[in-house]
Specification:
Number of helices: 6
Largest sheet: 5 strands, parallel
Radius of gyration: 21 Å
Number of strands: 5
Order of helices and strands: HHEHEHEEHEH
Distance between the termini: 76 Å
Structural class: alpha/beta
Oligomer: single chain
Strand content: 5-15%
Helix content: 25-40%
Shape: globular
Length: 153
Amino acid sequence: MSTYSKIAETQPHSSRVVAIPPEEPKVAELHFRSKLAFETDPSDVYMDLQNNSAEIIVIDARTQEAYSQEHVPGATNLPWRKIDSSSTAAMPRDKVLVTYCDGIHCNASTKAAMRLTALGFRVKEMLDGLQGWKREGYPVEETVVQLSTNITR
């Protein structure tokens, strides 16, 4: 039996929400501030990109194939599996890197954030990834790969 179930049984309330009381405001503020130190949302990223913010770099942590199909405009493709000291050597350390992947059912952005922070970068993860970005109605880009063909007649 879960802790919640035990509390709910011993302290019946008309509300399941307050069966476990909310934390005191000062403690709650620290918790929510902490969450915001790790996460951002598509709206904030979009506004920064629209305002040409020089403070962030958006990192698409998905595969090159997924990136080429669609990505946040201006995002840099850095698949999480390829993140190491050599693949990030030229990246500026004075920027906040914003990682994203497909969405809630993908954790490539979390894996990228973990690797990047281990290398000393400051990172935030974009909530809901590309799915959230598109749900907000923001545009996506695709990378067009042009194949060279020789046609002889």
